[in-house]
Design goal:
The chain has about 675 residues and is of the alpha+beta class. About 45% of the residues lie in helices and about 10% in strands. The chain has 26 helices and 15 strands. The chain has a four-stranded antiparallel sheet with strand order 1-9-5-7. A four-stranded mixed sheet has the order 2-4-3-8. The protein has a three-stranded antiparallel sheet with strand order 11-15-14, with helices on both faces. The relative contact order is 0.09.
């Protein structure tokens, strides 16, 4: 037994009888648990008597594990990879041509945005067929893997596969979703009017302590353990636990409106603060609304994603007054992004403080409901603090799957876990989020979804404005001509470089990270390795939403070819000047020679890119490293007749040929299984 130097002497040595240990289901070695905690398991019924195998107890909830696709790379996407009109939130819609359904895998406490969707066309026809084919020993019984289908699309509470801090991290899952088995996770189902109260209860420190008493090593977090948690009787209509969880859910959902990958995304937090400040000042905000495509009412702008899970979004709290109030003085001399970004930091700080108060109130109420006195509470919380420190804040859990199920799950992928932020977003990050959003909107709204990095003339001699120019125009529309010089200086400080440099060298990297290795803005560049800090000879951005068979041919012939021809003319002119100087002599020979070398290098860089595009558009085959046979097959399918993208296959498959062609920045290598 390890020594616990920070605890009193009487907590270094524990005296516990075997009979006392047996009070906890499974008789784990929960020597540290006080008697009052162990007694909860006999005094109160389990969360799910059926899974807990205590049929004599009242039925409180159904604890279930969900869908295992056995190949998530094939059957799951992030929601931003698929058309919004193809997302279903009911069984009926999956039979009416809508293919994708929100796929819940647990996450943060109270509210967790559901980033994934799963292919469930015709009620999962393809998933079920694949499972039956892949595992013939199941003899067609796909329900051994597609578990508890009758519970799909029902609201419930999902728990995270990660133990976070001192809580179990239960979040509300709305109706219209399919839930997962991932990492031993699952979902709790009970009447809707009891969900919020139960969410508070399950997110309390006391219930986490009960979980640890059953599972001291935290090696298991499956339905079998969750179902045995002791549940006190509460009236959800009168209990304060209902309002606590509801408030936390609403606050977190409203904060998510500033996250660009959230289903309820409205606008970056900085723009929301600016809009709220304008509203508070009773100024006209029409310019911002038009630029952002927002629908503003007295409560605030609404989500712009079109995601069906966002259709019921309403504002209740909004940006807190304490975040907005100081802006009047800060903006007295004009718009300042730094001041707006600082207000965003105050907003997040206010949110965290309110959530901490809610959590404390929940813990107080739960201790009271279970009759835990102050002394035992102190012992429990001391042990939780110790264990949290030893775990480093989070620890991954194992699955309860059988041997066959583990084999089937071996090729599943997990949604990238979002680490619980330990520090507030800095003001500079809020400014980066703003620039990223404006750049992405400019690319998405382009008619063909192709935007050059810098101004250029297309094959028909049409001037095509570069991305930096378009971002500046949006900044001008938002903040006005007078504010633009100040805004640009603040942007340069936040980015650590000019806007042009950031877009050329950093934007794509930032976007890949922000969009969890499934980018929807692609950068075609003649200088994929970056090299010296100079603009590439040619670069353009592509919008995933507009990607089709004509996109790359258009990049080559309409955008790149005129630039290449211009570079060839520059080389010819420089060559003539150099030849003349060599014959006639005179000063400037070294300078002209340097110009010639630079022009020749630029021409070669452009010619190499044209050659790569040409080869990519010809029939070929690729060697692909993937855990999914489907990914390998589909990558080669879309290049068999020359690159022919298919957006149904997702970003992972469609980006692979461009990666191997060497026309993307090296950070594109992050897009993998």
């Amino acid at each position: 037994m390890r020594k616990r130097e920070h605890l009193p002497t009487d907590r270094i040595v524990f005296t516990v009888t075997l009979g006392a240990l047996a009070e906890v289901p499974g008789t784990p070695f929960a020597y540290w648990a006080p008697q009052s905690l162990r007694a909860l398991f006999t005094a109160h019924p389990p969360l799910d008597r059926d899974v807990a195998r205590r049929p004599d107890q009242p039925k409180i909830a159904d604890v279930k594990v969900g869908l295992q696709t056995s190949d998530d790379l094939r059957f799951t996407r992030y929601w931003w990879e698929v058309p919004m009109e193809a997302i279903a939130i009911s069984r009926e819609e999956t039979r009416q041509g809508k293919r994708w359904v929100p796929f819940a895998k647990g996450g943060r406490p109270f509210y967790h945005d559901i980033a994934l969707v799963v292919d469930w066309a015709n009620e999962g026809e393809e998933v079920k067929g694949y499972i039956a084919q892949r595992y013939p020993y199941l003899q067609g019984k796909w329900e051994w893997v597609v578990k508890n289908e009758s519970f799909y699309f029902r609201p419930g509470l999902a728990w995270a596969r990660m133990v976070v801090s001192e809580h179990l991290s239960f979040s509300l899952v709305p109706a219209g979703c399919i839930f997962s088995h991932a990492g031993g996770g699952g979902q709790v189902f009970l009447p809707y009017d009891t969900l919020f109260a139960m969410c508070s209860l399950l997110n309390s420190k006391l219930l986490y302590a009960a979980f640890l008493a059953m599972n001291p090593l935290r090696h298991e977090k499956g339905a079998g353990i969750i179902a045995k948690l002791p549940i006190v009787a509460i009236n959800p209509q009168t209990s304060t636990l209902t309002s606590y969880a509801c408030t936390a859910y609403m606050l977190l959902r409203e904060w998510a409106t500033g996250e660009e990958t959230a289903t309820v995304f409205v606008a970056p937090w900085l723009l929301q603060v600016f809009w709220r400040w304008q509203q508070a000042q009773r100024q006209e905000a029409a310019a911002a609304e038009i630029t952002l495509g927002l629908t503003a009412d007295t409560e605030g702008p609404l989500p712009i994603t079109g995601h069906p899970l966002a259709c019921d979004f309403t504002w209740r709290y909004g940006v807190p007054t304490e975040a907005i109030a100081p802006l009047t003085a800060a903006l007295a001399r004009g718009v300042s992004l730094q001041a707006l970004a600082t207000a965003c930091v105050r907003w997040e700080a206010s949110l965290r403080q309110r959530l901490a108060e809610i959590q404390q109130a929940i813990d107080e109420e739960v201790y009271r409901l279970y009759g835990i006195d102050a002394d035992d509470r102190a012992l429990i919380e001391a042990e939780l603090a110790l264990l949290a420190g030893e775990a480093g804040g989070a620890e991954e859990e194992d699955s309860e799957a059988t041997e066959d199920e583990e084999a089937a799950a071996g090729e599943d992928t997990e949604e990238a876990e979002e680490p619980v932020a330990t520090a507030l977003l800095e003001p500079a990050e809020h400014i980066r989020r703003l620039i990223h959003f404006l750049a992405r909107q400019a690319i998405r709204e382009d008619p063909d979804g192709i935007v050059p990095l810098t101004d250029l003339h297309t094959i028909d001699n049409r001037l095509e404005r570069g991305l930096a120019w378009r971002v500046r125009e949006r900044l001008r529309a938002l903040f006005g001509d007078a504010a633009l010089p100040t805004v640009e200086r603040e942007i340069a400080r936040a980015l650590g470089q000019t806007l042009e440099e950031w877009l050329a060298h950093t934007f794509f990297t930032y976007h890949v990270r922000l969009f969890r290795r499934r980018p929807v803005i692609w950068l075609i560049t003649s200088n994929p390795r970056g090299g010296p800090r100079r603009p590439p000879a040619f670069a353009c951005f592509l919008a995933w939403e507009r990607l089709d068979h004509d996109t790359l041919p258009k990049v080559w012939h309409v955008y790149l070819q005129p630039v290449l021809e211009g570079a060839q003319r520059e080389v010819q002119q420089a060559e003539k000047r150099l030849a003349t100087l060599r014959v006639q002599g005179g000063p400037g020979l070294a300078h002209v020679d340097r110009e010639y070398q630079q022009a020749a290098a630029r021409q070669q860089e452009l010619a190499d890119l044209a050659d790569r595009l040409k080869r990519l558009l010809q029939a070929h085959r690729l060697e692909v490293q993937s855990r999914s046979r489907w990914v390998v097959e589909k990558v080669n399918e879309i290049v068999a007749q020359g690159y022919r993208p298919c957006r149904d296959y997702g970003v992972r498959v469609n980006l692979e040929p461009l990666k191997q062609a060497g026309i993307l920045p090296v950070e594109a290598a992050w897009v993998k299984d």
